[in-house]
TrEMBL record:
Pfam families: PIP49_C. Residues 144-418 form the Protein kinase domain. The keyword Cell cycle does not apply. InterPro entries: FAM69_kinase_dom, Kinase-like_dom_sf, PKDCC, Prot_kinase_dom. This is PKDCC-like protein.
Amino acid sequence: MIGYILVKRMYRPYIVIALFMYACLMYRTLENTCVSSDTKTLLDNKDQQRMKSMFVNRDAKSDNISDTLSMLRKEYNLLENKRMDFVSTLQTMISLYRNTDKAFPLNSFQSRSQDSQSDKDVSPREAPDHETKYLINCENIHEVHLHSKIGHGVSKQTFRGHFRGKHVAVKMVTRHQIEVKSCIEQLNKSDPDFISYRSRCFVFSTMKLMKEILLLQQLNHPGFVRLLGFCVRNEESDTTDLNERGIVSVFELGERLVTYSLQTLTWKEKLKIAVELADFLHYLEFSPLGSLRIRDFKEDHFLMVNGSLKMIDLDDVDNLEPSCTVYISIDTQIQQAKSGNQNGCEFGLTCQKGMCLGFNARQNIKFMNRIFFKILLFPTMFPDKLSREVGSILADLDDNAITAGVLCNKLKTINSYQ
């Protein structure tokens, strides 16, 4: 009973205390929860800022790399344009140097203006092509159209052709030439299966044609018919189709002449041609290849081109002076003296180092006089005031007592009297 009374009187304070303690516990729990939530929110904000900062930095770095690559590309294009300018200028100067005997100054290398936008935009593939020494090569040889045969020799044939509105002369080796034809006939008789090595018959003739091309690449004088171009592919061909032809050379077109037709020219025209031929002889004597001799010297190897005589056939030209014997017996000297030779050398030349030096030049003058000068320098065809001097020159030519250089100077002096 007493317990019941105590409980009944005291339960209310305990309940209050219990409620108070429960309230404190709940408050502490709620406070911890709020702090944890705020902390997590704060941490999330920091992570977002850090990630955002990382992306911003990456974008900035990407922009810097792009700018750097763009700058490098511009620098590369600038250097490439400068290189192409230099190569273009160098090729132009080399081309000019090859076409002249004079050297060009070193300060002539000047690059094109860098301010031109068109120059900056030119790529290596778009660089302009420069003119070559020859108009015709294997790339455009198909544009040459053949019309008719105008000449032939032992090893070559010549055709009249047409190239871009201009008449040209085309040389080639065919199986109908004497050298090739006889060789093929002999092979056919000896071996029915000769086709497999028939190209041997073309070797010697094509060698002569190649010799002409190589000589004209090294010689530079208006006395030669101008080589317009050539194409070299193989040793033989049975067709006149220039796309398949082995070796072809193309020259400016001239006219065949008979020497006596020169008599119809005026004395001024004759003197002009004589001066040109004398200058040509002087060039042959002191050519870059040495003193050259025309072994097969005949009028068929010369053409009339625009009022000038020019040489067309060079396959028999060489720089070999005749050999001689330095030490010979007295009896041999006497016998040679009777025949007009001295130590085996004609024209009164002495034997030097086993060669008759000067023979090539004298031989060229001899045949040039026999074929052309006797007609061009016939004294009675000149005015009276010039006929005596022309006659004196012709007498020296008949005696082979004048050099090409002296002849050229005397004829130029006479020409200045006009």
